[in-house]
Each structure stands twice: as structure tokens, then as C-alpha cells.
TrEMBL record:
This is Cytochrome bc1 complex Rieske iron-sulfur subunit. Pfam families: QcrA_N, Rieske. It is found in: Cell membrane. The lineage of its organism: Bacteria, Bacillati, Actinomycetota, Actinomycetes, Mycobacteriales. Residues 293-387 form the Rieske domain. Iron-sulfur subunit of the cytochrome bc1 complex, an essential component of the respiratory electron transport chain required for ATP synthesis. The bc1 complex catalyzes the oxidation of menaquinol and the reduction of cytochrome c in the respiratory chain. The bc1 complex operates through a Q-cycle mechanism that couples electron transfer to generation of the proton gradient that drives ATP synthesis. Keywords: 2Fe-2S, Cell membrane, Disulfide bond, Electron transport, Iron, Iron-sulfur, Membrane, Metal-binding, Oxidoreductase, Respiratory chain, Transmembrane, Transmembrane helix, Transport. GO terms for molecular function: 2 iron, 2 sulfur cluster binding; metal ion binding; monooxygenase activity; oxidoreductase activity, acting on paired donors, with incorporation or reduction of molecular oxygen.
Amino acid sequence: MSDSKRTYTDQELNAMSNDELARLGTELDGVTVAYRKARFPVANDPAEKRAVRAIYIWLAIGILAGIAFLGVYIFWPWQFQLLGDDNHMFHTLYTPLLGVTSGLSILGLGFAVVLYVKRIVPEEISVQRRHDGPSEEVDRRTITALLNDSWETSTLGRRKALQGLLGGAGILAGLVVVAPLGGMIKNPWKASELGIMGDGTLWTSGWTLHNEGVTLYLARDTGAIAEEHTGDSGTHWTTTGISRLVRVRAEDLDAGAMETVYPLTAEDANDGENYDPSRDVYENHMHSIHGPRNPVMLIRLRTADAEKAIEREGQEDFHYGDYYAYSKICTHIGCPTSLFEAQTNRILCPCHQSQFDALQYGKPIFGPAARALPQLPIEVDEEGYFVAKGNFIEPLGPAFWERTS
């Protein structure tokens, strides 16, 4: 309408009702409401009550699922449990419960919103002509009226219970998304008791126990798992007598071979002549394997290649004959440098193709890594087993601001 294009005074705008302002706003925006029909034109329509009841149900499901998610996330026993342990079932259900409750919380809110739009909000077809230009006072006033009109025609304003449920479901769905982020926040300077996984800080690992006078063997992972045992009390699974980690001797590796090894304390060694079938050291072995900075590559170079090896200054005695031990944690972003190319004596990281020279103290020669792989000083004890002669003298894995080398 041409009349909508003229300038309106404040007095004229104040004199208009909300419906008049809403109609004027659509005209100013070049919008034509071609069709509008209320979903339930008759008051107290039973169909409307059924529609609202369905929305209530989905919002209640979303709220209850959100509360259940927070309860599981905070209070459920999540600690690792071995097969056969009393709380093993609770441990295995932790992640599935998080997935089910978070999914129901978000889906409940989503279904409720979709149902509300499909069954409560009036049907409407509007056509708008696009135009450019800054917003004038009349535009600002009329858009407010349009928003008020949308609020009234949606009937949400008079549905107090629905408002509360919708707000509660929205808040809990948001918490479902945000709450797990709290578990990712870690203080890298907060130290706990030093153990086979380090003390929780970035500059320690299981190998740091050597600084406390603990003998640490280089042990390989056998992949052994719990075994089924049948006795007077019935059939159950047990790890008693099972050694996941076994100590490595020099003769266990062929020339040009590589073995991934982990720190094993003398107290937890249960193999060879010291094997005791009644001991259960499996859990401690698994902690060593899961230590984020524990994996080490034990490499046996060919004798001819070892004679050409270049030692790093201050680390000339870190190797034992043809045997070299390098951290398996890439100095780029912490991926496992799990590939050893025996023909070229190169250590490769499969994530971003960094390459390190095993003949030159693990020096990076290709890719994004800019720091040599830290070398573990090793020796062989009187029984022929490899042991750590000392701790790493530089930080393991990617660089961080607090490292001193």
C-alpha cells in the first residue's frame, strides 16, 4: 500500500494498536500475508489438548534424560574394572548410558519444538519483496509489534506450564552438551602421587620412578587377557597368574627388529624364573600400558649400521651395544611413531609423516616434527634383562611452554 510508505509521527504510532502496527510492519517490509489459519480455532478443542499433552511428554522426557545424564556423568562408577570384578558391569554401562541419556535429552527437546511448530503455531504463507536500505524508526517500532504478534498467535504466552518445561528442557539439553567439556579441562601443573603412569604432570611418566630408586625393566606386551576359571564357587574370569607384560632380554630381538616396551617395576615382574601362578599383577601391567608417555621403541640395529650411529652429545652411553631405546611419542603432536623401516633405519609417524633417523639420535629428517625423539638410557642386568639405566633427560612428546629443553 502506498500509504505505508509515508512518514509516521510518534503520536500516530502511539495511537495504533498492536494489530495495526503488525499489519503496517508487514507492509513496510514488503510482506504480504497470503494465508493464515489457526490450528485450533475452536476454544478447548480436544485435539489441541492432545497436541499439547504430546509436547509435554516429550519435554518431560528431555528434562528427565538431561537430569539422568548429569547423574550418570557425575556419580556413576566410571573407573576401569577388569573382567570378573564386582563393578565390571557398571564400568561397561557408563559410556552407553551417557549416549542414551544425552541423546534422549536432545531428541526430547527437538521433538517437542517440532511438534509445537507443526501442531500449535498457526499455518501461514507470507511473500516478501527484497529491498535495501537502513532501518528507520517506523521499522524498529513495527518489528517489535510483529514479534509481539508472533508471541500472541503462537499461544505460548498463555501456556505457562509449557514455558517452564520448554525452558527447563533447553537448559538441561545445553548442560548435556557443555558438562562433558568440564572433564576435558585439566591443570597440567597439579601433581598427584608418582606411579607407573607418572604423577599426572606433563613432564613425568612411568620411567620417572627411576628417580626414586625403583628398578624398571623394559617389558613387552603379550596381549594376554583374563582366563575362564571353574572352581567350587562356579565359573568366573580371573587374571591371577597372567602376566600382560614380560621382561625383554637382548636375545629376544633379531637384528633390524623393533619392539614396543613399557616400564615394569621389579615388584610387578611375574615371569621367567620368578613366575608365581598365585600372583595377580595384571591391573598394574595395564596401568603401565595405558600410561600416556610410557611407550618406548627398543630397536636392535644391524651391527654394520650401529657402527655408523652418531650419538647425541651427553648421551653417548645411553645405548647398549646395538640396542637403542627411543620414546614412541612423536614430538610433533603426540601420535605413536609405530613404524620402523629396517632398511633405512628410519622411524616413521603415520599421522603426519614425520621421519626420524635411528642412526642419528632420533633426529627428525622429514615432516613437521622439529625435535629429536628422547632417548632412554638402557643397560642389561646380571640376569640378562633390559633395565632403564636412568630416566629420560628431556620432556616426552610434543613441546609445551614449561619444558626446559
